[in-house]
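Reproducibility note. Readers wishing to regenerate the assembly model reported in the main text can use the exact inputs given here. Chain order matters: entities are listed in the order in which they were concatenated for prediction.
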Amino acid sequence: MRLTSRKQYEEFRVRATRRLEGMRCRVLVCTGSGCLAGGAREVAEAVEEGLRERGLLDGRQGVEGKRTGCHGLCEAGPLVSIEPEGILYTRVTPDDVPEILDRTVLGGEVVERLAYEDPRSKNRVVHYRDIPFYKYQTRIATRNVGRVDPHDLEDAIAHGAYAGAVKALFEMTPEQVIDEVARSGLRGRGGAGFHTGRKWAACRRAPGDVKYVICNGDEGDPGAFKDRAIMEGDPHSVLEGMIIGAYAVGAREGFIYVRDEYPPGVLTSLHAALEAAREAGILGRGIFGTGMEFDIRITRGGGAYVCGESSALMRSIEGKVGEPRAKYIHGTERGLYDRPTVLNNVETWAHVGAILTRGGEWFAGMGTPKSKGTKAFSLSGKVRNAGLIELPMGTPLRHILHDIGGGIRGDRPFKAVQTGGPSGGVIPEALLDLPVDYEQLTEHGSMMGSGGMIVMDDRTCMVDVARYFVRFLNEESCGKCVPCREGLLQMLHLLDGLCEGRGRPGDLDRIERLARGMKWGSLCDLGRSAPNPVLSTLRHFREEYEAHLRDGACPAGVCRALTQYEIVPERCDGCHECVEVCPTAAIAGKPKQRHVIDQEKCIACGECFNVCPVDAIRYGPKARPATASAGATT
Amino acid sequence: MPTVTIDGRRVTVREGAYVLEAARLAGARIPALCHHEAVEPIGACRLCVVDIWKPGWDADSFRLVASCLYPVEEGLVVHTATPRVMETRRVALDLLLARCPETPLVRDLAREYGIEETTYRKRENPDDCILCGLCTRICDKVGPAAISTQSRGVLREVAPPFFEAPPDCIGCGACAEVCPTGHIKVTEDGFTRTIWGKTFEMLRCPSCGRAYLTRAQAEWMAGRGMPVEPLCDSCKRRRTAEVAASLGRPR
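Running the prediction on these inputs yields the following structure tokens for the assembly.
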């Protein structure tokens, strides 16, 4: 099947849509990475086999089983949804499948026990539209993720894929396309938030007949997975965006740079989509029968976080060492192979097709004055509904956390949410009503970054959080410039000192001064933003730093060198649960008898505290041996 | 040719120059450890930072940039010693001093900026390498790119492939020549030169008899159609001077 004219595309789309609408029942099994890890492959196989056994796959029953990308609610996976009713089944095992097929697909009734359980009311909620996690979302970049089979071009086109590209190619000049994107107010979803329309316009203006477009799929922030979900679950939205971008700036070649650590599903999806698009005449020579020539190649990263930085990424594609270089001359003028290049994030590209289809005005109608449209977030950490979400810009954090996220796991007190990964920072309880957009996050010392949101409860030490990110960056800095390479090492030494009770008076000043020097002096944004996790935790939780430094105490009971766990004898009922989880067998005591922690063996991991049902474990500063100077002064 | 203002002084520089060159023409003292005229700048040491302002920007809007690779343009205003510039240099030097606490070049420069001892934890078993990358860049440009930086972050180091005697090295010694701290060691005994763990046979100058070129380099150059000078540098200089003198002598 080749779509060599607009008419052919439209006819194909109408046929595909009719076919889809004629379906009586579609069983969609989420095979995103989260659900796969929970056994979704076996569930999908059981569904396919069960449908076949029941004779439902002969094409006349209006029934089909599909493997899709991420449905979003990873926490409750493996997920299976039933369309068109919009029923969601959670924690599905292969053993549940016959019941689903018999009762729901054939019998038209709901299997209550598999429906989503509201964590607060404990009620079963059957339909997507009633589940708070889905109810409040607006999905644009992720519009088809979890709804289409990424290996089925027809399915994608039935869901609207390439409508924006066709409109751009047949109805608009490249300048009009750029104007439309500019009108939408779309800004880079990879972190920096540069105006996409402006970037494209600069590249179109730049002299040269060879230009490139690049998709940055090197999503490497700890706790971020939205780009993975898009590439895996709806690769055609990325290809469509890139075709439109290539048309707008005049590029004949594009690259998708994919993080090496990603599961094979990402590459399989992308390769399948590229092949299907080439076969259909959507990529290659004469796209949709027009004179446009454009194709896309996939480049795999080599496992370096810094290659998510645009100039390092371009060097990496060129086959050189992936190191950033100064961007005093923009990539839109001298980028890949020194040619004018547009580089956008996966999510940015995924937005473009929808913007062209529905218009810039529509997109700009959502969000805040300077941050338009919607943003995808990877919600993780101590939140009940961890998963992939997409919301209008300006949604208050409290709404994200409590209504969509379902609150804190185990009903522990909320402490902070980390946004923006290693370049970002933390937002404390007091700022929970903050509307999330580029400006607000930056103003409060954090960053939008690539949309990671790690929720933290009271059992999180902020000094330890800062140390975690600094350690991460210390291993990932390319080492080219002095402030980043040497600065991160020294920052890590300083934070190690605090966490291990070796802090010296004046350390907080040393940390702040070093952070400033790194911010001002570093060559690229990795180094310039590297102090953010430290500065933002210091800004919002300074007393916690001071407790480490002054009292040698970790208020959250996390820093092992500073923390001692004890069992309160009068509370302990000898349930033995702590003994079971203690990794070093440091807790002595028989069931039904009071337990005691052997401080010699205890590594202060806090597992006993986490499981104790009667709050009989307490922690506090470690008793420190009396200093030698006490006797020496006399 | 663009005219720029450096610390209030106007200078006109060649098209395509970087700010560092313009600043030095204007007499500004800017430290730079990874800069060398022979190779392209990379902006690694960050000591050459300056504050710049461009026509069209808000009056109080300055940007901190590495002067070694910021291209000059008409009307650019440069401040080479603002408090922010000085503080950035001090932190970078303090960090370099922790990396190379015994290296004279680093010590002297740090002292110039008021740092006697580093604030930070000194590296254990330090060497003199400041990772300026001059050696790898010069080898890339005038030689066979026999050495490169390896690993990343603090583990980064300059080394031949697989940390073995570099198969491509021609023993020209350009890397040691540009090394600002003397970290790259070359030993010669009159007959051989040893560098990067590889020993080379030396050719002698037919005029003065001094060993001046490795055979490997001569062959490498000849293989690329480059003229191989039969004389050592000082003899060549003397010969040229003699010719010049004979031409200029009044008869």
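We highlight two features of this model. The two ends of chain B are 44 Å apart (CA to CA). Chain B has a mean pLDDT of 94.
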